[in-house]
Structures are given as structure tokens and as C-alpha cells.
Amino acid sequence: MCLGVPGEIKEIDGHEAVADFWGVERRVRLDIVGDAVEEGDYILNHVGYAIRKIPESEVEQTMELFETMLDADPEDMMADDMIEELEANSGAPAPGAQDDDEGDEDDDLLEELGIDV
């Protein structure tokens, strides 16, 4: 299953942006999103690509829905897909991350969410 995960755009540099996913910042590409994206906008990310800009009127409801999924049992298939999507970029360091700390932010997020992988 393909799942997009919502995140907030923090910085934009050409066709690349930094997005915040529950405290974990990742670089995402904006090439295929189809709408103009600005800092502060929310997007759905799929394996490093913003695939859709979330309309402002839908952001709160979308975030609540995904937070509910993150709180679900990690054995739940939808929660598992979302966790996999959050981890999909883990090979690319978060902006400003040191090489020796690579992956620590992912581990912190998963620990905070009570997810044991």
C-alpha cells in the first residue's frame, strides 16, 4: 500500500524543501506536487516526494487522523505502513544532522510514539 504522510514545510530551496514530520525534519522534493507550496504549508510526503498540498481547511483534521493512526497498535497494518513511510527517508540525514548521529532522530520519534521496531 502507498501511504502519504503529512508534514509542514519549514524551508524551500528550489524544488527541494525541509518538512517537519512530528519533530523529525526531512528533505522532500516538490517536483510533482502540482500546486505552489510555501513555507508553513502542509504536504503529503511519499518516499521523499511531496505528492499533494493539503488544503488549509483540511490540515487539522488530517493531522488528527494520522496521529490517531500513530497511536494505534504497531501490529495494525495501517500504522505499520505509516511507520514504514516515516522511515523511508532514513538513509538521507535530516537537515543539520551529523553523520555519527544519523538515525537518532528516527529512533527518538519511534520511541516517543511507543513503537518498537
UniProtKB/TrEMBL annotation:
Composition bias type Acidic residues, residue spans: 98-117
Domain of life: Archaea
Transmembrane annotation, as ranges: none
Pfam families: HupF_HypC (PF01455)
Gene3D superfamilies noted in UniProt: 2.30.30.140
Family, as annotated: Belongs to the HupF/HypC family.
NCBIfam families xref list: hypC_hupF
Protein name: HypC/HybG/HupF family hydrogenase formation chaperone
